[in-house]
């Protein structure tokens, strides 16, 4: 939820799965507990959903149209990265660490710039 909000979305959350809405306002067969309403995704988009699985993880539900445009690989990658950061920060806090920022460094193997999360101990 935090990652979606940081990306500018206002997700709708429900305990029970809700049907997703298509770009014409039609009700789709797919259901999800977390829904990004189509108006937040793009002009001619469908709802984007996140379906809770039995093991507690979520599966992305995105139409072919939206995965090729408004909610494509770049946006999905950004969401995964933000989610991983938020999760790491929460886990670090439980371990007695405080998040202090990000630092861009060069990956020794690939030579590409990467961001590293920085923490300090609080105990």
Characterize the structure shown:
By secondary structure, this protein is α+β, with helices and mostly antiparallel strands. It has a domain at 2-71. The chain has helices spanning 2-6, 38-41, 64-67, 73-94, and strands at 12-21, 27-36, 48-52, 58-61, 97-106, 113-121. The strands form two sheets. The protein has a four-stranded antiparallel β-sheet with strand order 1-2-3-4. Strand 3 (48-52) and strand 4 (58-61) form a beta hairpin. It is globular, with a radius of gyration of 17 Å.
Main sheet strand line-up: 1-2-3-4
Structural class: alpha+beta
The share of residues in helices is 25-40%
- Tally of individual helices: 4
List unreliable stretches of 5+ residues.
none
Strand percentage lies at: 35-45%
Radius of gyration: 17 Å
In total, the number of strands is 6
Mean pLDDT: 94
Distance between the termini: 29 Å
From the spread of the alpha carbons, the general shape counts as: globular
Main pleated sheet = 4 strands, antiparallel
H/E element order = HEEHEEHHEE
Quickly list its features:
4 helices; alpha+beta; 39% strand; single chain; 123 residues; two-stranded antiparallel ribbon
Could you provide a short overview of the structure?
By secondary structure, this protein is an alpha+beta fold.
Strand and helix map with partners:
Layout: H1 2-6, E1 12-21, E2 27-36, H2 38-41, E3 48-52, E4 58-61, H3 64-67, H4 73-94, E5 97-106, E6 113-121
Antiparallel strand pairs: 1-2, 2-3, 3-4, 5-6
């Amino acid at each position: 939820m935090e990652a979606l909000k940081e990306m500018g979305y206002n997700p709708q959350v429900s305990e029970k799965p809700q049907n997703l809405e298509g770009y014409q306002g039609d009700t789709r067969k797919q259901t999800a507990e977390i829904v990004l309403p189509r108006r937040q995704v793009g002009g001619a988009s469908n709802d984007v959903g996140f379906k809770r699985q039995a093991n507690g993880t979520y599966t992305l539900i995105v139409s072919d149209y939206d995965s090729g445009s408004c909610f494509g690989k770049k946006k999905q990658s950004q969401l995964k990265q933000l989610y991983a950061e938020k999760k790491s920060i929460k886990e670090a806090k439980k371990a007695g660490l405080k998040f202090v920022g990000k630092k861009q460094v060069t990956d020794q193997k690939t030579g590409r710039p990467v961001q590293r999360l920085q923490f300090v101990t609080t105990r």
